[in-house]
Amino acid sequence: MRKRLRRMSPILALLALLALDGCAKTPPNLSPAAATAFQKTRVIKALDLARDFAIDGEAQDPKVVSTKTTRDIVQWHQSSLKVMQASDSGWVEAVGAGLTEVVNKLEADEKQKFTPYVSLVRTSLVEVTR
Amino acid sequence: MTPLVAVLIQQMPQLIAFAREAFANANPDEPSPTDEAIIAAYQSALASSLARDADWLEQHPEDN
């Protein structure tokens, strides 16, 4: 199960990336507030994938992701969402900076496990700024 | 030019309009999402996502 989860994670992240990319365009009929909500929803989905991978990996026996790393990821995820909830400007930069910070905290082997999810979040943030 | 070809050329705009309408009827566009639907989806995604964070953090207090 552990090996399968590890093997599947980049594939799942790639599929998620393609799925997100497939609906990348913000519908043109939306007001600025709704367009921002649309973009934030897309980023939340990407953030959720990283957080869910951590939580699901931590729940495995033996653990694929340590409890400490999972706590760091969950706390980063929670902070990111709160920043997005609090502000309509500057949140992309804040979420990106938080991501860099949490990735720097990870051990090398765990950093590798999260690479596809980190790329996915960064891609979703870049899409917002296009 | 045969009379049939002449009629076809003359009626070309109507033929194109008919073909477009038939294609549109066979492949209706998805309705554009409304502002309200998008904002509701965002708020729902935000709330459920924050709830999962809170649940996990509650079940895994830092001193464990």
What does this entry look like structurally?
The complex is a heterodimer of chains A (130) and B (64). Chain A has 130 residues and is mainly alpha-helical. Chain A has one domain (2-23, 36-129). Chain A has helices spanning 2-22, 32-58, 67-86, 91-105, 108-129. In chain A, helix 1 runs parallel beside helix 5, helix 2 (32-58) runs antiparallel to helix 3 (67-86) and helix 4 packs antiparallel against helix 5 (108-129). The longest helix of chain A has 27 residues, at 32-58. In chain A, 34% of the residues are buried. With 64 residues, chain B is mainly α. Chain B has 2 domains: 1-30; 31-64. Chain B is 75% helix and 0% strand. Chain B has 3 helices and no strands. Chain B has helices spanning 3-10, 12-26, 35-59. At the A-B interface, helix 2 and helix 3 of A face helix 3 of B.
Task: Please render the helix and strand layout as text.
The complex is a heterodimer of chains A (130) and B (64).
Chain A lengths: L1 H21 L9 H27 L8 H20 L4 H15 L2 H22 L1
Helix pairs in contact in A: 1-2, 1-5, 2-3, 2-5, 3-4, 4-5
Chain B lengths: L2 H8 L1 H15 L8 H25 L5
**Radius of gyration over C-alpha positions of chain A, nearest whole angstrom:** 15 Å
Order of helices and strands of chain A: HHHHH
Q: Would you identify the regions of chain A where 5 or more consecutive residues have pLDDT less than 50?
A: none
Summarize model confidence as the mean pLDDT of chain A.
87
Q: Tell me the overall shape of chain A.
A: elongated
Counted by DSSP, the helix tally of chain A is 5
Helix content of chain B: over 70%
- Annotation, overall tally of beta strands of chain B: 0
Task: Give a summary of the structure in a few sentences.
The complex is a heterodimer of chains A (130) and B (64). Chain A is an all-alpha fold and 130 residues long.
Task: Provide the descriptors you would attach to this structure in a database record.
heterodimer, A: 130 residues, mainly alpha, elongated, B: 64 residues, 3 helices, 0% strand, rod-shaped
